[in-house]
Every structure is written in structure tokens, then in C-alpha cells.
Amino acid sequence: MSFLHERWRRRVSLLVTGCLDEGERAATLAHLERCADCRSDREVLEGILAELSRDPQRRAEPDVAVEFVVARVQARLDEVVRSRSWRIGWFAAGLATALLVALLVPRLIPRLVSPKGGAAGAAGVALAVSPEPAVRQLELPEAALRRMERTVVREQAARYLAEAQDVLVTVASSRGRCRREGTSVDVGEEARRSRELLARRALVVDVEGDAMAAARPVMEDVERLLREVAALEACARQRDLDEIHDSIKRRKLLMKIDLMEKELLG
Amino acid sequence: MQLSDAELMRRLARGDRDALAPLMERHYRRVYRIALAYLRSPEDALDAAQETFVKAFVHAKRWDAGTEVLPWLTRIATNQAIDQYRRARRRTTRFEPLEEGDHDERISAEGPSPERRVLGGEVGQRIRHAVDGLPEPQRAVFVLRHYEEMSLEEIGRSLGLRLGTVKSSLHRAVRRLRDRLAEVHA
Question: Are A161 and A223 in contact, with CB atoms under 8 Å apart?
Fold first, then answer.
């Protein structure tokens, strides 16, 4: 086949995919009238594209509503932020340790190597390492302690809600067929996580305290749904999942969790 | 008042997460369909769409304000789908020794492949076989043209390719698909 003909073949490919401008299209059609090879090539390619157009996924619409995906993205971003905070925390702790060592070592070394060493030297080290301000720091006023406690409670509740939201979103958007039964959906992992969260709730979240007053209704809704998920069989019926999905939607629970998390974290 | 894509991107770049929902409402379907054309599984496509928007938020500062948002998102979605596809292929080709007595259980638990379950038909299988055989960037160009009906210029902008490269990739993709489908029919 000549180089010129190869160029026509390229144009035929672009013609059948609808990618030629008017001028090129007219020239190619004129060539097709003269060239039987290219005409048959065009027919074959059109047949192939027609077959590809029958692909059932060509115009497929997502079967999960956008608000669920938004919630999943927000949950993933929380994870990203948390892992970054951890990294920053570790870095800061490392830096602080390095600074402390850099400050203390020059002071300690002369004492350790001084001729007065022994018990007196060791006492000197103890004094140098535990200065008075550190003792004063331990005597925090009660109000400050309460504030810290309140912050911890609220942070734990926010984390709990974030994890619960993750489970609920996954369940509501589950479409993967169960391996054992054709019409069921595999939610075994989510049911297990729900049970774990419910068991943990009493330990990590003090719902009765003042700090959690505003979060109580959301926590109750979340807990109710987690109980439903926890009760699901590993291979759940699609109908049961649809009910949970509707329940989440009706209560606008994902949005409420988002708002509550923000409020809890201040 | 509806905010433009550009304004939403500026907000994302400032760390405003509330700008995600309107941006996703506008572009989620397209991002999902691109991923689905690549990965052929609704669950994987959903994961890819989710990661696309996570990356859009994390890298919002890198978006060039002089360009359109959709081609930028399309590029992220395509790269994400390619990454996931490669990871999945590595996983399936990795050798996993089975313990004695485990064979029957594994075989009965696996059942039909996810694609077979999703497509449930011969057409999907044939198309998957054909499209899977396309190398990059032919595959990306073909998917964006055939599934999303994007113009060649849009495809070029989305994939960072010159117009000539887009045209020759599309031509080669069509030819290769013809050969692959002929193999299947034979």
C-alpha cells in the first residue's frame, strides 16, 4: 500500500469517528467514490464503531447520588488532614526533642565530667532537669482542666461521628454483589465496623455531659442507624440497604454529621 | 446565584470545602463515566470519581486560572483511572500460592468476574477485551472521543497532547480495535 493510501486510511478512520472538518470530509468522500478498498474499509470500521456503540456502559449514569459521593470525598479529606496533622505532630515532637537535647547537653556534660561528680553531681543534674516552672505547670487551675477535658470529649465525639459517617456512606452506596448470593450485597465489613463503633461509643463518647448537649440528637440518629447496619447479614438484601439509604436521606444525616463535626471541633 | 467553575476552584484553593459540592454536582457524571469506560466496574469507577475530587481539592492551587476547569478535571480523572487500572492488573497477575484444600473454596467464592456480573453480556466482554488491548494514549483518546464525544481539541487540552497526536492516536486506536474485534469474532 502506498504512502498516499495510508494517508487516506487515516482520513477514513477520522471520518467514521466524526473528526474531519468540512473540507477534509468532502475530499475523503470524493476519494471513497473512486476507491473500492477504502469504501470497504469504511464499512468495516463503521460496523465496528456500531458494535462499540452498543456498549451498555456508554451512557451509563452513576447509581449513587452525588451527595453521597460528596460526603465520601469530605470523609477522605478528613483522613488526609488527620494524616497530615500526625506527620506535622511527629515532626514537631522530633524538633522539640532535638532542641531540648541541644539545650541540655552542653549544661549536663560539664556537671557529669566535673571532679565533684558522684551523688552531688547527680543531684545537680536532677535540679537542672526539673526546674520549678515545670512543677508550677502541673498545678493548672480547675477551670483550665475542665476546658481541656471538654475539648477532648468533643474531639472524640467528632472522630466517632466521622467514622460512623464513613460506615453509613459506604453502606448506602454499596452496590457490589455478594459473592455467595446473586441478588444480595456484601456489607459484612460495614456490619462489623458498626458493631465495633457501637461497642466503643460508651467508652469514648460521654453523651450525657454538657459538652455534648448539642450533639445528642445527631448521635442518637447515628446510633439508631448503626444498630440497623450492625444487624444486617453479611449478604444483605438490596431492599434493606435501600431503606437505610432512604432513612439517611430523609434525616439529612450526612449533612448534620458534617455540621456537627465542625461545631465539635470548633 | 450560581458560581462559575473558576470561582469554585479559587475557593477550593483557599481551602473552602463547601465549594466541592457545587463543583461535583456539575462534573461528577462526566468524571464517573470516563472512569467507568476505563475500569468497566461501577464500584471502581465510583472510587476513581471520589479520588479525582479529593485530588482536585488537594491540588486546587496548581490549577491554572487561565484554563477551563473541566479539561483539568478530565485529566485528573483519566490519570486516576489509569493508575487504578494498572494497580488492579498488577494485583490480578500477582502469583498467590493457595494452601492445600483452599482451591475449591476460592473457586466457588469467586463466581463470575466483576465485569461479567456488571455487564452481564457478551457485548460488554468483547468490548472490554478490545478496549483493554489499546495502549496509552490511544485508549484515553478513544475513550474521551467515543464515550464522552469530546472534540479533538478538548481531548488535546485534557490530555496535554498536540492535535496531531490526538488524531494519529485515534486513527491507531480504531485500527487496533478492528483487529482486536476481528480476533474475537474469529
Answer: no
Backbone angles phi, psi at A235, to 5 degrees: -105, 90
The Cβ-side half-sphere exposure at A41, using a 13 Å CA radius, reads 23
Q: Do A73 and B20 touch (CB under 8 A)?
A: yes
d(CA A169, CA B52): 18
pTM for the whole thing?
0.55
Classify burial at B114, counting beta carbons within 10 Å of its beta carbon; exposed 0-12, middle 13-18, buried 19 or more: middle
Strand partners, A237: A184
Domain assignment of residue B46, yes or no: yes
What is the Cα–Cα distance from A125 to A115, expressed in whole angstroms? Answer: 14
Neighbouring C-beta atoms of residue B115, cutoff 10 Å: 18
> The domain spanning residue B32 has which CATH number?
1.10.1740.10
Structural domain includes residue B101: no
If asked whether residues B59 and B141 sit together in one domain, one would say no
Cβ–Cβ below 8 Å for A73 and B123: no
Say whether both B128 and B60 belong to one domain: no
Distance of CA B134 to the CA centre of its chain: 14
The total domain count for chain B is 2
> Is B60 inside any structural domain?
yes
Q: Which residues of A touch B112 (CB under 8 A)?
A: none
Cβ B158 vs Cβ B144: under 8 Å: yes
* Partner-chain residue, chosen from A9, A63, A72, that has the shortest CB–CB distance to B50: A72
For residues A75 and A168, the answer to whether their CB atoms sit within 8 Å is: no
Domain boundary (B24, B55, B90) is at B90
Give tens-digit pLDDT for B31-77: 999 999 888 888 899 999 999 999 999 999 888 888 889 999 999 99
A265 at interface of B, judged by CB pairs closer than 8 A: no
Residues B57 and B132 in one domain: no
Of B54, B152, B181, the CB nearest to A48: B181
Q: What is the ipTM of this complex?
A: 0.74
Whole-angstrom distance, CA of residue B122 vs CA of residue B124: 5
In this structure, the answer to whether residues B5 and B77 fall within a common structural domain is yes
Q: What domain range includes position B23?
A: 1-90
Identify any residues that bridge with A186 across adjacent strands, giving them in sequence order. Answer: A235
